[in-house]
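Bench notes, bay 3.
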Amino acid sequence: MDRLNSIKLNILILFFITLLTGCGGGSSSTYTDTSTDTSSNITPKAIHKGQVKDSLTGKGLKNVNVSIGSHTVTTDLEGYYILSDLTETDETVVNFKKEGYLLGSTKIQIKAFSEDNTPATNYLEYIIDSYDFQWSYDSQNSAFNDSIDIPDSIYIDITGEHYTGTVSAELEILDITTHEGKALFPGSFEGIDSNGQITPFITYGLISLSFKDTNGNSLNFTDGTLGTLTFNPIGVSEEQNIIPLWYYNYTQGLWIEEGYAQRQTDGTYLGEISHPGTWSLNKPIESDPGIFRAHIIDEDGSPVSNVRLHAIGDNWISSDLSTDENGLFEIKVIADENFQLSAYNYKDKYGATYDFIIPGIASGDVIED
C-alpha cells in the first residue's frame, strides 16, 4: 500500500503542475429525492456562468435553453450564459435544450459570492450533440431501423389524446467507450436501481429518441404500448445474457432502472421500453468503490480550490465537483478498474488530462497522499 501511495502521489504532482501551467460511483444507499427547486429560499448572490458548444465544431451554440430548477436563460451568439439568483448548494442539476440536439444534463456546484463580493467560480463548459437521425412520417406507420422498432398508431399528445398526423422523430446513438460518448452521457454514471437504491454502474451504450407532433410538442406512447431498442454488441469477453435498461430523468438528474435488454444470437441486446426518452444499457456495480483522495497544490505548495476532478474509466466517469479551500478532492472509482484523471479549473477556465493510466483501487481501499 505504501508503494502504491507513493506512485499515486508522484503521478498527482506531475499532473497538477501540468494543470496549473494552463495545459490543455459508490456503495448502495437508500434513495431520497433531494432535487432542489431554486425558486424558493433564493440567495441573490449565487450565480452560474458557462458556455455551451457544438460537439462537432467546438464552437459556441446560440439559443440553447439552459435551466436550473425554475431558472432559465438562453445562450448568446457565442454560446455564453449567466444564471443568477440561485441558491448556494453542493450539488444541483443543469439541463441544456436546443432544437435538433440531444438533451444535455450534468451536476454542478453553486457557490455564493466571496466576502469581497467577487463572483463565485461557478463556471462550466458543456458540449451537446446534434441528433444522428431526424425524419418525419405518418403516425399510422411504424418507425423502424436497426436500433428502434416503434409500432404504428401508438401516440398520445400532451393532453393525453390519441394523436394521428405527421410525426417528427429524432434518434441519437452513443458509443460510451469513446471520449465523446462519455462526455455526452447525461448526468452521472449511477442511478436508482429496481430496489430503490442509488447504485453506480458501467454503461455499454445509449439510445435517445423523441417524437413530436406538427406543433413541435412531445408525443408519448399510449399506456401498455411498448417500443423496442436494439443496442450494439458490448464487446467484452464475458458474455452477459441480460443487462438492465435505465432511462434518464432530466428533472431529478438521475438514471432510473426500468426493464432489461437480452442478448441476441448476433451479440446485440434487445429491450422493450414504455416511453420515448434517453435510455442506456447499464451494468450495476454491487461491490464497494475504491476511494481516490488527494490535494491539488501549486508549485509553491499552496492549495488550489475550485478545480473539478474526473476519474475516467473505459465506460464510466466519477467526479468531484470542486476541490475545497484546502485543495482536497475525493473520488469514488469502480473497484479494480484502471482510470485516468482529468481536471478543469473553472475559475481561470482551463483544463488538462493526465495521460498515464492509474491502476485500479481495490474495493473498500482508500488511496491518499
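Next record in the batch:
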Amino acid sequence: MKRARKSSRAVRECAVPMVLEHRSDYPSQLATNESIIPKIGCTAQTLLNWIQHTEVDQSTSVGVTTAERERVEALEREPKELRRPSSIPNVLI
C-alpha cells in the first residue's frame, strides 16, 4: 500500500487563500477545489481539510480550533509524563 506523502506547510499557506479568493468565481466549493488541485498537487480531501481547519480557526465555521486541540493534547500528555520514572537516580545519604 502506498504511503501518502505529506504536503508542505508552504503549499498549504498558498492553496487555502487561493481557494478562498476564487470561491466567488465558481458555482460551488467543489468546482473551486477542482480548479486549484492540479496547480498545487494535493488530493481533494487534503485541500478540503485545510479549508475546513482554516474556517474553524477564523471562527467562520463551528468546530475545535487548532489552539484548543493543541491545548487538549498537551493536557492529555501531562499525566503520562508524570507517571514516567524520573531520570534522576534516588540516592540515599
